[in-house]
Amino acid sequence: PPQTPVRAAMNSIAQLRVDLITSGDQPSSNLAVYFKNCTVDPTEEVLQRVESLGLLFSQRFGQAVGPRCVGLGKQVPPGLNTEEKRLSVQNFSKLLNDSTFHTSLLACALEVVMATYGGSTFKNGGYSNGGVPVETDLCFPWILDVFQLTAFDFYKVIESFIKAEPSLSKDIVKHLERCEHLIMETIAWREDSPLFELLKRTREEGPVEQAEPPAT
Amino acid sequence: SHSYHFGLEEHEGITELFDSD
User: Fold this and answer.
1) What is the ipTM, given to two decimal places?
2) What is the DSSP secondary-structure string of A132-169?
3) Which of B2, B8, B14 sits opposite A174 (nearest CB)?
4) Per the CB < 8 Å rule, is A95 touching B18?
């Protein structure tokens, strides 16, 4: 039977709940091994960061939607197996101790949850108990502002996140793709973007290889 | 139907993307 928008949203929510219940709220044994293989074990720092960013998110989310604040899932998806195969290394100390990587990953996970539950409802105007209008546009790129994360860094995790979570619904993949396009087309080109510094550095280092001659 | 277009090549991944060296 044809899917109504409500049915599609309900299915996405059901799928997300299954995914979250199946994966639990602790690092998988697989991820724990990667943590142990690191020169500096990032477990404690990851736990602390998830805690502090979780609090930050809850505060801002609470301010935005009013007092009906939601509980927050606490999971860091790994997706490192493909990296191990690709690079033939098991020590991901640098990556797994990188705060920007953690923040981007958590932002991506929260964006998935908000897109699944929120859809268009977060866009509607709202008022707090005191009758004061509250911030209600929680659509992307709101999460970047909450975590003070650059779009350029958020962009880096999108593809790996989708690859690592094959059960994401079609609508959510589409949503992440829209975020990606928005970053590519506008947000990454704003004045304070780290992209410009990177372009400058690449240029100073000189061209790595000759461009291919144009085809006839 | 909808499928995500994967842009990274086989030899690229998240490790390099976060490596600023």
Assistant:
1) 0.81
2) -EE----STTHHHHHHT--HHHHHHHHHHHHHH-TTS-
3) B2
4) yes
